[in-house]
C-alpha cells in the first residue's frame, strides 16, 4: 500500500491559499462582471486557454487575476502536480480500493511505458484494442455470421452505470460517423420495458448482444443478459447459437464462460479502470462496432492529446486544471450547488447524463482520503440538456432565479449538417446566452425601453452569472475524446483539492445489499415475515397485494 495515497496533509481550510481565498472573496464579492469587463478591455482574450484542440473562455467567471493566482497557489499547496504524476505513473491513488487509476493508459501510444506493480500495461491495452479491431471488422464486413448464416445487423449493448452511460453517450455523440445500415441499442434498466423496447423489432438471427460488465455479477446486467439469451434461443433453439450472438466485455472470465460465451470472444480490461472511466476501454466495443476501428483510434488520440496537455502544461494555461479550480471557486466560495452543462450540439444530448456519473460518483464524497470528514462541501450536482431546448424551459431559473447556477457552454464552429442558417442561429444563441448571463439588463436599461414601471422589476436581469465556454472546430471522434478527458481531469483536479478519493463509489453499495434482502420477500408465494421499518414493511405488503390483482 502506498501510504502517500492516504496522506492528506493539513486540512484544506487551514491552508494559507484557502485562507487567502476566503479573505479575497470578501473583497471581491461585490464585483459585477459588467464592471470587471469594462475595466479590462482585453479580459476576454486574456482569460482564455487553448489546448489539445479545445478553446476555453473562462473570462465570464466572477474572478479577478488575483482569484486565479490564489487558486493556482491552492493547487500547488494541495500537491496537484505530484498527484497528477502519481496517477500517470500507476500510483495506487484510489486509496480506499488500493488500486491504480490508469484510464490514461487506455490511450497511451505504443512504446509508452506505464507500470502497475512492475508490469508494463500498455502492451496489454494494445492487445485488447487489436482484438476489438479484428472482431469489429469481421462483424462490420459481414464475415461474422450468426447461427443461421445471416450477417449481424443489430448490436445490443447490455450493461449499466459505467458499462452503459459511456457507450450510449459515445454512440449518440458519434452517430454521424456510425454505420447507418446497422442498428445499435442499449439496455441498462432491470425494468423489463427497457429490454422489450430495445428488441421488439429486431430479428434474433441478425442480432448480437454485448454483455458489458466488469464484474459479470451485476444484478441488472445479468438479468437482462439471461432474458437476451432466452429471447435468442426462443427463435434459434440450439444452445450453440449463444456463441454466435453473444460476446462479453469483462474482467471475469469464469463468469463469462459459465454464461456460455466463448472466452475467445471476451474482451478484457483491468481493475485499474473504473467503470465511469472506461468508455475508451473494451467497454467501448459497441462504439467501435458503430464507427470502426480507425475512428475509435481517432477518439483515443483526442483523449491522449488532452492527457498530455493535462500532464505537461503549466497550470495557468491548463484547461482541466483551470476548469477544476473554477469549479472549486464557484462551489466553495460563491456557494453554487449545481453546474449546468449545456451542449449546443444535438449529438451531445447524452453528454450531461454521462457527466452526471463521471462527476457525481467521483466527487460525491463526505470523507477525505484519511477517513476524516471533509470540512467543505464537495461535488456539485451536474445536470443539463442540449442548449436551445433548455433555453425554452429551465434557463429562466438560471437567468432570474434566486440560485446561482454556473454553466458550461459547449459549441462547435463547423456543423456536421450544414443546413441553411441553422448553425449560425444555434451558435448565436449560445453566445447570446453567455452574454445575457454575464451582463444582464439593468433597471435603467429596462426603463429606457419605455417599460411601464410595474413591469420593470420583472424584466430586469441581474447578470453576474458565471459561465465557461468551450469551443472546438467540429464534433469528431477526436474532439469527443478531448472533451471527455477534459472533464475527467477537471474532476480529478477538484478531488485533489478536496483530498477525497474520486475513484471509489462505496455509496452505491448499501442499496444493492438491501435490495437482495427484499427480492425474496417480493417473490415469496407465502406470507413472509417482514422485519423492516414500518414504512418499508407497509410498502412491501401493498406491492404484494396490488401485484396480484388484475389490472
Ligand atoms: C462506475 C461504477 C458503476 C459500474 C456499474 C456496472 O464507476 O463502478 O457504475 O460501472 O455498477 O458494473 P459492472 O460493469 O461490474 O457490471
Compact overview of the structure:
The protein has helices at residues 16-28, 33-39, 43-46, 65-77, 80-88, 122-141, 165-173, 192-199, 219-236, 241-245, 253-259, 285-312, 319-333, 351-363, 387-391, 395-400, 422-439, 443-448, 456-459, 477-498, 509-523, 534-548; strands spanning 48-51, 54-57, 115-116, 119-120, 154-158, 183-187, 207-212, 246-250, 266-268, 338-343, 381-383, 407-412, 467-472.
Based on secondary structure, the structural category is alpha/beta
Q: Count all strands and give the number.
A: 13
Helix content: 40-55%
| Spatial arrangement of strands, main beta sheet | 1-2-13-12-10-11
Approximate strand percentage: 5-15%
Tally of separate helices: 22
Poorly predicted ranges = none
Ligand inventory reads: glucose-6-phosphate
Cα-based radius of gyration, to the nearest Å: 25 Å
The major β-sheet equals:
6 strands, mixed
Q: What would the principal axes of the Cα set say about the shape?
A: globular
Question: Would you mind describing this structure in some detail?
Answer:
There is one protein chain. With 551 residues, the protein is α/β, with parallel strands linked by helices. It is 47% helix and 10% strand. The protein contains 22 helices and 13 strands. It has helices spanning 16-28, 33-39, 43-46, 65-77, 80-88, 122-141, 165-173, 192-199, 219-236, 241-245, 253-259, 285-312, 319-333, 351-363, 387-391, 395-400, 422-439, 443-448, 456-459, 477-498, 509-523, 534-548, and strands at residues 48-51, 54-57, 115-116, 119-120, 154-158, 183-187, 207-212, 246-250, 266-268, 338-343, 381-383, 407-412, 467-472. The strands form 3 sheets. The chain has a 6-stranded mixed β-sheet, with helices on both faces. α7 links the parallel β5 (154-158) and β6 (183-187). α1 packs antiparallel against α4 and α12 crosses α20 (477-498). The longest helix has 28 residues, at 285-312. The protein is globular, with a radius of gyration of 25 Å. The chain starts with 15 loop residues before the first helix and ends with a helix. The mean pLDDT is 96. The structure holds glucose-6-phosphate. Glucose-6-phosphate binds next to loops. Glucose-6-phosphate binds at residues 160-163, 213-215, 218, 221, 274-276, 361, 505.
Amino acid at each position: 500500500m502506498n501510504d502517500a495515497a492516504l496522506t492528506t496533509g493539513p486540512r484544506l481550510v487551514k491552508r494559507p491559499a484557502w485562507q487567502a481565498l476566503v479573505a479575497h472573496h470578501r473583497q471581491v464579492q461585490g464585483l459585477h462582471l459588467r464592471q470587471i469587463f469594462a475595466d479590462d478591455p482585453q479580459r476576454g482574450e486574456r482569460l482564455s486557454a487553448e489546448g489539445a484542440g479545445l478553446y476555453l473562455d473562462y473570462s465570464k467567471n466572477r474572478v479577478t487575476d488575483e482569484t486565479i493566482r490564489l487558486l493556482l497557489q491552492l493547487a500547488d499547496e494541495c500537491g496537484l502536480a505530484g498527484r497528477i504524476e502519481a496517477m500517470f505513473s500507476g500510483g495506487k491513488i484510489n486509496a480506499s480500493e488500493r488500486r491504480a487509476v490508469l484510464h490514461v493508459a487506455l490511450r497511451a501510444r505504443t512504446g509508452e511505458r506505464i507500470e502497475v506493480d512492475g508490469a508494463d500495461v500498455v502492451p496489454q491495452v494494445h492487445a485488447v484494442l487489436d482484438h476489438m479491431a479484428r472482431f469489429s471488422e469481421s462483424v462490420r464486413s459481414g464475415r461474422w455470421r450468426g447461427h443461421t448464416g445471416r450477417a449481424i445487423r443489430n448490436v445490443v449493448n447490455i450493461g449499466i452505470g459505467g458499462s452503459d452511460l459511456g457507450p450510449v453517450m459515445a454512440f449518440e455523440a458519434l452517430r454521424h460517423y456510425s454505420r447507418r445500415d446497422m442498428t445499435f441499442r442499449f439496455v441498462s434498466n432491470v425494468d423489463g420495458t427497457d429490454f422489450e423496447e430495445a428488441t421488439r423489432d429486431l430479428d434474433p438471427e441478425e442480432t448480437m448482444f454485448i454483455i458489458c460488465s466488469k464484474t459479470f455479477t451485476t444484478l441488472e446486467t445479468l438479468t437482462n443478459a439471461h432474458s437476451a439469451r432466452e429471447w435468442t434461443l426462443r427463435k434459434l433453439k440450439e444452445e450453440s447459437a449463444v456463441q454466435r450472438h453473444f460476446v462479453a466485455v469483462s474482467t471475469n472470465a469464469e463468469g463469462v464462460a459459465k454464461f456460455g460465451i466463448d472466452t475467445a470472444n471476451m474482451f478484457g480490461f483491468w481493475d485499474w479502470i473504473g467503470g465511469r472511466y472506461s468508455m475508451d476501454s473494451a467497454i467501448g466495443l459497441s462504439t467501435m462496432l458503430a464507427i470502426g476501428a480507425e475512428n475509435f483510434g481517432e477518439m483515443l488520440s483526442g483523449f491522449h492529446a488532452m492527457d498530455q496537455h493535462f500532464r505537461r502544461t503549466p497550470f495557468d494555461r491548463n484547461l482541466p486544471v483551470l476548469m477544476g479550480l473554477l469549479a472549486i471557486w464557484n462551489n466553495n466560495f460563491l456557494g453554487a450547488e449545481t453546474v449546468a452543462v449545456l451542449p449546443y450540439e444535438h449529438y451531445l444530448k447524452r453528454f450531461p447524463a454521462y457527466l452526471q456519473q463521471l462527476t457525481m460518483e467521483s466527487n460525491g464524497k463526505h470523507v477525505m482520503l484519511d477517513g476524516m470528514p471533509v470540512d467543505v462541501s464537495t461535488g456539485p450536482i451536474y445536470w443539463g440538456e442540449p442548449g436551445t431546448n433548455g433555453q425554452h424551459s429551465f434557463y429562466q431559473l438560471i437567468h432570474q432565479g434566486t440560485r446561482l447556477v454556473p454553466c458550461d457552454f459547449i459549441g462547435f464552429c463547423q456543423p456536421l449538417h450544414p443546413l441553411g442558417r441553422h448553425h449560425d442561429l444555434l451558435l448565436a444563441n449560445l453566445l447570446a446566452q453567455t452574454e445575457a448571463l454575464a451582463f444582464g439588463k439593468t433597471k435603467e436599461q429596462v426603463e429606457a425601453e419605455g417599460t411601464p414601471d410595474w413591469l420593470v422589476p420583472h424584466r430586469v436581469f441581474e447578470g453576474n452569472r458565471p459561465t465557461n465556454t468551450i469551443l472546438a472546430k467540429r464534433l469528431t471522434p477526436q474532439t469527443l475524446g478531448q472533451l471527455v478527458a477534459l472533464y475527467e481531469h477537471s474532476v480529478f483536479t477538484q478531488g485533489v483539492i478536496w483530498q477525497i478519493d474520486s475513484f471509489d463509489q462505496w455509496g452505491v453499495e448499501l442499496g444493492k445489499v438491501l435490495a437482495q434482502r427484499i427480492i425474496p420477500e417480493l417473490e415469496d408465494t407465502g406470507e413472509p415475515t417482514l422485519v423492516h421499518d414500518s414504512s418499508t414493511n407497509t410498502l412491501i405488503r401493498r406491492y404484494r397485494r396490488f401485484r396480484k390483482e388484475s389490472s
